[in-house]
Write a structure and sequence with these properties.
globular, 8-stranded mixed sheet, Aminopeptidase, alpha+beta, 8 helices, disordered C terminus, two-stranded antiparallel ribbon, 10 strands
Length: 225
């Protein structure tokens, strides 16, 4: 398995800088805290659906101590000359506890590193990691009157399964080869919309979603009301 706990590779960006991609480790908690602190207020709102100020010890434990099979994450790091390496992005997959062939995914890139292709790199790698683990589909949720979602569904109508339930639209995208432009485009689009707060990608950690873990379920209910 390529994307094992010991996975790492060096990637050269289009501007010549090199970033290290590797599996997240339990000792990455401090780096995760620093990366979180560099997210802008707007990036935090888009990713966590609230202006969350910090991650708790329990959250850090859950986000860094992955089992490598049902929960796997890849971090991107940059090391300036003679300085410590800094985290610039992370991609994560968590298998659904009830449907083992389905997973939720999320990607976040630190603001000043957005626009350099790191998000696409992380997306391709996490798709490959999911395929290695027998994951066949990625799931996301949105409100039915969301125009961006309607456009997304129309564009990828052959690749997305739609279920209307409890006033929401549940979308399930197939994982194909990571170099399949249609599949990659669908996944990239839905994860981008997730980052903008227009769809929800409720990552499951055991029997609890990431939103529940971060204490956001109640806040989101208030926002919807």
């Amino acid at each position: 398995m390529k994307y094992a706990p010991g996975y790492q590779e060096m990637i050269t960006l289009t501007d010549g800088r090199e970033v290290l991609l590797r599996a997240i480790q339990a000792n990455d908690k401090a780096a995760l805290v620093k990366a979180f602190s560099r997210l802008s207020h707007e990036s935090r709102r888009r990713r966590f659906f609230t202006s969350k100020k910090e991650l708790t010890e329990q959250e850090l434990k859950s986000l860094t101590e992955c089992d490598g099979i049902n929960h796997y994450a890849i971090v991107a790091g940059f090391q300036p000359k003679d300085e410590p390496i800094e985290g610039v992005g992370v991609a994560r997959l968590v298998r659904d506890a009830k449907q083992s062939s389905i997973a939720e995914m999320a990607i976040v890139v630190v603001d000043q590193w957005q626009g350099y292709g790191i998000g696409t790199l992380l997306l391709k790698r996490i798709i490959e990691a999911a395929a290695e683990r027998g994951i066949e589909h990625v799931r996301a949720i949105a409100l039915p009157d969301n125009e961006q979602i309607q456009h997304l569904i129309a564009h990828f109508s052959e690749d997305v399964e739609i279920v209307h339930e409890k006033g929401m639209v549940q979308m399930t995208f197939p994982i194909k080869a990571a170099d399949d432009e249609s599949s990659l485009g669908a996944l990239f689009s839905v994860l981008k919309l997730a980052a903008l707060g227009t769809v929800l990608v409720p990552l499951w950690l055991g029997n609890k979603s990431l939103r529940h873990l971060l204490g956001l379920d109640k806040e989101q209910e208030s926002d919807v009301d």
